[in-house]
Amino acid sequence: MIIVHYLENSRAHRILWLLEELGxxxxxxxxxxxxxxxxxxSLKAVHPLGKSPVIEDGGKVIAESGAIIEYLIDTYGxxxxxxxxxxxxxxxxxxxxxxxxxxxxxxxxxxxxxxxLPSQVPLFIRPIAALIAKGAARSFIDPQLEDHxxxxxxxxxxxxxxxxxxFSAADIAMSFPVEAAMSRMEQGRxxxxxxxxxxLEAIRARPAYQRALARGGAYSxxxx
Length: 224
Fold this sequence. Notes:
Shape: globular
Strand order of the largest sheet: 2-1-3-4
Order of helices and strands: EHEEEHHHHHHH
Radius of gyration: 18 Å
Largest sheet: 4 strands, mixed
CATH architecture of the largest domain: Up-down Bundle
Strand content: 5-15%
Distance between the termini: 27 Å
CATH class of the largest domain: Mainly Alpha
Number of domains: 2
Number of strands: 4
């Protein structure tokens, strides 16, 4: 049986969700974050980088969300969750499967790091750190995030999902960046992002999404 090494409040939720969509049985090893919000050292016994998600399946250890998604679809008959090879939808699927971690998440992680920066330095320099953090967010991070959010709105407005008119594993990959951005960006709650909001309503209503929450527990977007 597949074992999912699941760090609480993390992107690992997506892997549980895909397994629920596939109907593949799995067990979960849950890891709790430390007071610094980092993963415990015990995860390094599973994978040298000590990151989550990681899965074990038949003696194989697979890390990285995109790689895990591709492995599970290839291994467990998940063709229904990716468009037909050679189609325009398949090209969009491949793009967003990799874009989620390659382009979207680095900005969101950077935003989180700068938000936490003032609390991680000595008290007497916190005002300076706060100014640096706010300046970096205002002049560098937030403008780029706004571009990404506008891009999502445009793509989703075309036909409802990231790889066409049908739900796919690209939507699972993109779920965390979209949910995290909408929870962290004040602009996201104020702008008329109707396509993004319809998308979030659609994915959260899926029974497999709800079952994954029940298995792994609700997660917070204040972590990565």
